[in-house]
Design goal:
The chain is mainly alpha-helical. The chain contains four helices and no strands. The structure holds protoporphyrin IX containing FE (2 copies). One protoporphyrin IX containing FE binds next to helix 2 and helix 4.
């Protein structure tokens, strides 16, 4: 596996643990409100699930397509932006719940959105239909 894949999967697992701890905290305390639900939701869906998909996709889709990833550099930039964006979004929800200011959250939401677009571009330029599998010769009839 490439470093990108390993780091996306490591990050995904860390977000999963944090998201689950937040979920347990909400169940335990009995308060499931702002900003806990939002952080729990997005650590689960953008952190755990999306980052696991990014990591596995960077490994497997070039192999399925029979050609290398279009850009390793773009994938590295995406790894940084996805993490900066998600942590910033979480901090933004905390700020929003404190003083109602949206700016911080919007900036990091855009960073997260850019990271997703970079992934999509890299994959569009990588994936290609693989040539058909060679047919097995028909068994000899006696
Ligand atoms: C130990 C595991 C988990 C616990 C204890 C937990 C707990 C919670 C709690 C207490 C809420 C707030 C519910 C409410 O009062 O509205 C919530 C919301 C939510 N959880 Fe989890 N959760 C867990 C795992 C997950 C996972 C694995 C996912 C997704 C992959 C997930 C996705 C969501 C979403 C999307 C919401 C928001 C739903 C809404 O908008 O009302 N949760 N969770
Ligand atoms: C750049 C990426 C994303 C941004 C900026 C974003 C932003 C937001 C915002 C602002 C809300 C409303 C929060 C509130 O005020 O209650 C929200 C809710 C929600 N989002 Fe996202 N989101 C993103 C990606 C995703 C993805 C990829 C998923 C699912 C795979 C998702 C699932 C949800 C769900 C289930 C809710 C409703 C539950 C909640 O309030 O947390 N989001 N999102």
């Amino acid at each position: 596996m490439s470093n990108i894949t390993v780091w996306f999967i490591r990050c995904a697992m860390i977000y999963f643990v944090v998201a689950i701890l937040l979920g347990l905290h909400m169940s335990w305390v009995g308060y499931a409100g702002y900003p806990y639900i939002q952080i729990h939701t997005h650590f689960n869906l953008l952190g755990w699930m999306s980052m696991m998909i990014f990591g596995v996709a960077y490994h497997i889709l070039p192999r399925f397509s029979g050609r290398p990833l279009w850009s390793d550099k773009l994938a590295l930039v995406q790894l940084y932006l996805a993490n900066i964006g998600l942590i910033g979004m979480a901090a933004g929800w905390v700020i929003l719940s404190g003083n109602g200011s949206k700016g911080f959250h919007i900036v990091f939401s855009l960073v997260e959105a850019v990271s997703i677009v970079l992934f999509v571009i890299n994959m569009f330029l990588t994936i290609k239909a693989a040539p058909p599998m060679p047919q097995k010769p028909a068994p000899d009839k006696k």
